[in-house]
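Entry 14: structure prediction run for Glutamate-1-semialdehyde 2,1-aminomutase. Input pasted below.
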Amino acid sequence: MNESEKLFEKAKTLIPGGVNSPVRAFRAVGGSPLFIKSAKGPYIYDEDGRQYIELINSWGPMILGHAFEPVEKAVRDAIQYSFSFGAPTRKEVEMAELITQMVPSVEKVRMVNSGTEATMAAIRVARGFTGRDKIIKFEGCYHGHGDSFLIAAGSGAMTMGVPDSPGVTKATAADTLTAPYNDLAAVEVLLANNQNQIAAIILEPVVGNMGCVLPEPGFLEGIRTLCDKNGVLLIFDEVMTGFRLAKGGAQERFNIVPDLTTMGKIIGGGMPVGAYGGRAEIMNIVSPAGPVYQAGTLSGNPIAMSAGLAMLHYLNEHPDVYSRLEEVGNKLTDGFRSALLKTGLNYTINHVGSMFTLFMTERPVTNFSEAKSCDLPLFGRYFHAMLNRGVYLAPSQFESLFLSTALTDELVEQIIQANEESLTEAIT
Ligand code: PLP
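Run finished. Output tokens:
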């Protein structure tokens, strides 16, 4: 047994499933997870001293590579002043100002500690603001582990939600309606059948959580129009896409203005940070300005704010980051496409900017049921073949990969080569 395997065996006796977040356990691909000791730039190192090229980047935050110097320095500088005050700080004001500049639809913002907290708070605010109880989400979109979001689709868009996890009550599930992603007609039906009852529509403007799935032309515009017509708030969950698909997130890239936005991942530079914000008129109902309660002992933590601020400042002041990410994304996906041609496989690649997924299916993937048509055992073999060649992918078909600016052209070529060899190995 290697060190990772030994640690996993012990972890399983102490932590449910051996991990502190389920997908880390490698259940979807088989085998034993790597236990990570350190990471720098484009590389991650496991407890056995092996080096891997990073295509997960902590599920998104490490957009500039690991231990990026300005972020590391900001944290070092901050820790000398103590780690938490539970009182307002200058850095929180700077953070709020920077976020509102980078994401103009956000006029006021509240910091929290995770994406889950951000989405939970956002729907509470939407409910408080509209005086309505129900929300609409899309099948295959993940908004963290708040009860209201752990809802399966039932049998089609007309169906009331049913709990996806034991512990979520039927009453909670009944307030979450679901529709297939990219299906405007299904949303129209839900709105028509629940008039004056829907507080918000929440979606990932580009989905990362069923693999990378793009909004079809007109989908986001159509949702915006339906929200306006029906007095429903539009919540963009930009926990993955925020500060990644553009400085101002997917809303800038697709030119759609949501009412509320949830953020996470990059905003903390790798520290546990989330945020939600939107029009001042809506955010003014949040406590203590208004009656909708939301709080947090460690919210706006000074160390986390320092890391996040250093990250966002860098992104705000270096637009070349985004052109480089486009370039890396295009090079990699071009290379992956030519490997598919060479190996005679007609699989689907969905790609936008620095997010992409190679789906092991010949169908186009525009929603969750299409994503589920993938050959999952094949993905598992491909994943391990890539790992053996030193490339660390997300351990599930239903995830997006996240690129960083630490990837050099040489590393891109290495990944392309590993991909071609791994595909060939996986199909034979
Ligand atoms: N929303 C989206 C779109 C996410 O991708 C995630 C996590 O991956 C979350 C919310 C939840 O964020 P967290 O894991 O920080 O609670």
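Notes: Residues 145 and 366 are 23 Å apart (CA to CA). Will compare against the previous run tomorrow.
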